[in-house]
Design brief:
Blueprint (H helix, E strand, L loop, with lengths): L1 H42 L5 H4 L7 H12 L10 H15 L2 H4 L5 H15 L10 H15 L11 H18 L4 H4 L7 H8 L12 H12 L6 H13 L11 H8 L9 H6 L2 H9 L5 H16 L10 H15 L11 H18 L3
Helix pairs in contact: 3-4, 4-6, 6-7, 7-8, 8-10, 8-12, 11-16, 15-16, 16-17, 17-18
Length: 365
């Protein structure tokens, strides 16, 4: 009995030693099985990304749209319905600024919107040609204004838009190139719509040389709905920008010509110009307006205060305008004492510094 137990223990010990020898083999087999499982997952196709969208928690169409947009692959959009595909093509075209993708769109409205957006966004006038007349007109008009390309206006089919395009781009070029030749090509007939389009152009207002006095004059013309010929308006603004008083003489309207001459530049502020301004007529223009009447009146008061160097008129203006009014008269008269009428300490200091700097420059300091 004792010998049997010893034999069993010996066999168990012997088997354990044998199994230990086989462990590396078992381990190797296990690794191979795991690797085969991994390779089977990677190498065996489980469906394309597009196929996976069928069971997407986002929903099939949303998944396809996201896939097409993120990959920039417009062909994926073809898996959607026509309306869905058109929207998909449009989004990719705009994202890639690629007009070729617009051509895939079936719906006429969406296709036109696609070409219009890319044409105006990239300023490629040739892309406007496939649009209908009204869309093509607006497309070319938008590009011409953005590029200040007067020649591009010739391609605008709509006559009204073409006129506004020519006036606005001509005005831009006159100011950017300081060239009165562009003003000369404008109509001398009064046309409020054309002048308004030029007035609403913000480019010239950001120019440092465009002084506060002329800003008020331009505001008056806008508030009063005054019918000023585009040519006259162009000469007036260009005169202020370039400080060229001779351009005022080219203005056909005598009152506007006088206003043009009487700017806040001291060398051009003369009694003849001041006496030629008919303020009654200017105020009457404001009186005839149902809207912006007060703003119109304030602009004329400002103009009159500076032109006549009468600081007492500034007091009746709203706070910011009154400060600018005092400052303009101080510069015209080279009298820093007028700055003392300004209540705001920072505005007052700014006014005084402007006078001091101007004097230093004139003395060559």
């Amino acid at each position: 009995m004792l010998e049997g137990k010893k034999e069993h223990k010996a066999r168990s010990a012997s088997m354990s030693e044998e199994e230990k020898k086989q462990l590396p083999i078992y381990f190797a087999i296990t690794v191979i099985i795991i690797l085969l499982a991994v390779f089977s997952i990677v190498l065996v196709p489980r469906g394309t990304q597009l196929q996976r969208c069928e069971g997407s928690i986002l929903g099939r169409d949303a998944c396809i749209n996201n896939l097409a947009y993120s990959s920039g692959n417009a062909s994926i959009c073809g898996a959607l319905s026509q309306s869905g595909a058109d929207s998909c093509y449009y989004n990719i075209a705009i994202n890639r600024t690629n007009a070729t993708d617009c051509s895939r769109i079936q719906g006429g409205v969406v296709k036109s919107q696609c070409f219009y957006a890319i044409a105006t966004g990239t300023e490629q006038a040739q892309l406007c040609q496939g649009l209908n007349q009204s869309e093509r007109s607006m497309c070319l008009y938008t590009i011409a204004l953005a590029t200040s390309n007067t020649h591009a206006c010739a391609g605008v089919p709509n006559a009204t838009q073409q006129s506004i395009c020519l006036a606005t781009t001509g005005f831009d070029n006159a100011l950017s190139r300081s060239s009165p030749a562009y003003c000369a090509n404008m109509t001398s007939s009064t046309d409020y719509n054309l002048t308004l389009a030029m007035y609403q152009n913000e480019n010239y207002r950001s120019n440092d040389s465009f002084n506060a006095y002329v800003s008020e004059l331009v505001s008056y013309l806008g508030f009063s709905n005054s019918s000023v010929a585009p040519k006259d308006f162009c000469y007036m603004v260009l005169s202020a920008k370039t400080d060229n008083a001779s351009l005022c003489a080219r203005i056909s309207d005598a009152n506007i010509s006088a206003l043009c001459t009487a700017t806040d530049n001291a060398s051009r502020m003369n009694a003849t110009a001041r006496s030629a301004i008919n303020y009654t007529a200017l105020y009457l223009q404001c009186y005839n307006q149902t809207q912006s009447q007060q703003e119109c009146n304030d602009s004329i008061t400002y103009i009159k205060a500076v032109a006549t160097k009468n600081a007492s008129l500034c007091k009746g203006l709203i706070t910011n305008e009154s400060y600018q009014c005092y400052s303009s008269i101080a510069q015209v008269t080279n009298d820093s004492r007028i700055c003392n009428y300004i209540k705001n300490s920072m505005e007052k200091l700014g006014c005084q510094l402007d006078i001091a700097n101007a004097n230093n420059l004139s003395q060559g300091n």
